[in-house]
Amino acid sequence: MGGKPVKVLSERLGHAGPAITLRVYARVMPGNQREAADWFAALVESA
Questions:
Q1: If DSSP codes are grouped into helix, strand and coil, which group holds residue 31?
Q2: Model confidence, pTM
Q3: Which of 1, 18, 24, 43 pairs as cysteine with 10 (C-beta 3.0–4.6 A)?
């Protein structure tokens, strides 16, 4: 989530825990899947 630890963001937002933060905001981060796929592909290629 923007390169920041989810626990820290959760606390700043006043959520009861990181799971709530992830549930609320994960769906509004459409680029995450593409970034994760690119990162994983780079790992595989470098192995």
A1: coil
A2: 0.54
A3: 18
pLDDT band at 19; cut points 50, 70, 90: very high
User: Within a 13 Å sphere around the CA of 42, how many CA atoms are in the beta-carbon half?
Assistant: 6
3-state SS, residue 19: helix
Q: Quickly count: other Cβ atoms within 10 Å of residue 43's Cβ.
A: 9
Q: Are 15 and 7 in contact (CB under 8 A)?
A: no
Q: Quick one: CA dihedral 2, 32, 28, 10, positive or negative?
A: negative
Which residues have CB under 8 Å from 20's CB, separation 6+? 10
pLDDT > 80? residue 28: no
